[in-house]
Specification:
Length: about 300
């Protein structure tokens, strides 16, 4: 029995399928199956029931799973104690929301590559729910998205926040000199859909000011939202840095009578059972570099 065999067994048991587990370990599915087969041979019994369309754990596999987790956790702890300047190799897959991908993600990738030149970085950008699904299924090593996760299998660490400002194009305001929150009832609110983390702070703001928009126009892209607001299709809010640039250009105006939204908290998320030292290093890098004022091609 080797650590590589236990590692192959553990990730095959906890990822969505063997292909995801093999991808996570940067090996082929056949190599993963070989390691599991060698482990089963050493134990003299099967760990997976392969008669079904998707492999499921046998009773022995269920019994071994927590022990494999503890052995791998112990090995990770030893690596942390053995050296403070570890250089990682293989593949690192992480997920982020669109706002992160458009602002400071390139800086994060650059920092990872400089610290670990043999590590292949593979980012994925999507809405928070999709990113969390990928993390929980084992397709991603870590995630950086808005808000703490409500999933029991996912641990969240706060690393920073994003701030937003209410804006509109002059043409959307018409002859109005000033716009107050109550007037949203007669206007269109342009924003992201319900599965976006930013909706949390929007719902809090609407409830606090006892208002509801007359109409909502939703889109799952920050770039599209910014474009629709610039076109005068409704009012909305944008990341503060974007809003300031567009207002300086005269394309938008700040809605000065709209109280500010609460900042949106961002977290570094990882599976609770994944104790690799690499993830601690990635979290520290992310906490150091997070910056939603970073340049964006959109503005």
């Amino acid at each position: 029995m080797t650590l590589k065999q236990l590692e192959a067994f553990y990730w095959a048991a906890t990822c969505r399928n063997f292909a995801v587990a093999a991808n996570r370990l940067s090996i082929s599915v056949s190599s993963l199956s070989k390691r599991i087969g060698e482990l089963e041979a050493s134990l003299g019994a099967a760990l997976f029931n392969r008669s079904a369309r998707s492999a499921s754990l046998t009773p022995l596999g269920e019994h071994l799973l927590p022990h494999a987790r503890e052995l791998l956790r112990g090995a990770d702890h030893f690596l942390q104690q053995a050296g403070t300047q570890l250089s990682y190799a293989g593949r690192c897959r992480f997920g982020v929301g669109e706002l992160t991908s458009l602002t400071w993600m390139p800086r994060l990738i650059e920092a990872i590559q400089q610290a670990h030149p043999n590590l292949l970085v593979e980012p994925f950008a999507g809405v928070g729910q999709l990113v969390e699904d990928g993390l929980e299924n084992g397709e991603l090593d870590f995630a950086i998205i808005a808000g703490p996760s409500s999933r029991p299998a996912v641990a969240s660490s706060r690393i920073g926040q994003a701030e937003f400002g209410w804006v509109a194009a002059p043409r959307a305001l018409g002859r109005r000199q000033r716009v107050r929150p109550a007037q949203l009832a007669d206007m269109t609110l342009v924003t992201l859909p319900q599965n976006s983390g930013v909706i949390r702070i929007l719902d809090d703001w609407l409830a606090a000011h006892h208002v509801a928009p007359g109409r909502a126009m939703n889109c799952n892209s920050w770039g599209a939202v910014a474009g629709m607001i610039r076109q005068g299709l409704g009012v909305g809010f944008l990341p503060t840095a974007w809003a300031e640039v567009l207002c300086r250009r005269g394309e938008l105006v700040m809605l000065a009578d709209f109280p500010p939204l609460n900042p949106l908290q961002y977290t570094f998320q990882r599976r609770r059972d994944d104790t690799r030292p690499m993830l601690d290093d990635m979290r520290k890098l992310a906490a150091k570099l997070i910056d939603f004022h970073a340049p964006s091609c959109l503005v």
